[in-house]
Design a protein that fits this description.
Elements lengths: L1 E2 L2 E5 L4 E5 L7 H22 L3 H4 L20
Antiparallel strand pairs: 1-2, 2-3
């Protein structure tokens, strides 16, 4: 799903959000930001709707499985 310059990809174990969203300080920017916030709130609600299983969500480092850190090649 693409929304206001951001891409949301729902994987089997993670929600990836990437892109370049710009939200201007006007009515249109507020509406765009509200739409993005709504998508994220629905993602949280989907986890909460899992009931007791939501409380059993594994602790993680927030990077997902298989993510590795590398030295900054630019300094």
């Amino acid at each position: 799903m693409e929304l206001h310059g951001l891409t949301f990809e729902n994987g089997t174990d993670a929600l990836a959000v990437y892109g370049n969203g710009v939200f201007t300080r006007d009515a249109a920017g507020r509406a765009a930001l509200a739409a993005v916030v709504d998508v994220l709130r629905r993602a949280v609600a989907a986890l909460d709707e899992a009931g007791p299983a939501a409380q059993a969500l594994p602790d993680g480092d927030g990077r997902g499985d298989g993510a590795t850190s590398v030295a900054n090649p630019f300094g």
